[in-house]
Design brief:
Length: about 220
Amino acid sequence: MNPKFIKYHRERIDEQDMLKSGEEFFEIMKKRRSIRFFSEEKFDKKLIELAVLIAGSAPSVANKQPWKFVIVESPEVKREIRLAAEKEEKESYENRMPQSWLDDLAPLGTDWRKEFLETAPYLIVVFKVDYLKTDTRLKKHYYVNESAGIATGFLLAALNYMGLSTLTHTPSPMNFLQKILNRPSNEKPYMLIPVGYPAENAVVPDLEKKSPEEIMLTV
């Protein structure tokens, strides 16, 4: 099969304008924090849908786009997800996690209770799609974790840029999400993301990001 190509064009931007845009984006992204105290205030679901479209623009190996984003707004479904997540988290905190992991989590003040799964007006459940199932055969996807991770990063950046707060939640195991949301066997839960405005009394840990010298070098 001969590959089909189309001409690509992107308007060139003055470097000073590029730098200004990058600095403005950096200032917005620095405000991103993982929030565990959400307001119940509703907002237009179109914001979520737009963020998912932005996530869907992410690169993926062989353009397989191995992801699915399920938006949860039903209070009943959110309740079911919370109960299932807390069951797994309680078992993890009490029996699965080694002491070193618990020690690392201690400064964050987290435990197995996950009220935010009900309080946040929306949950986005990211599924990675391991393969495509057709009537005749299975079509494998490649580097699924990496591709889904990039798309999830796009999603988080878009939501933060719009002014919404999020949390990356990964209860382990997460198979209950596949069952509750009635997803097929080729879709595996990748991340559970509450989305909303922070509560008025929301607090976050006093943390610092690594310095540029710690994360960047030129060779």
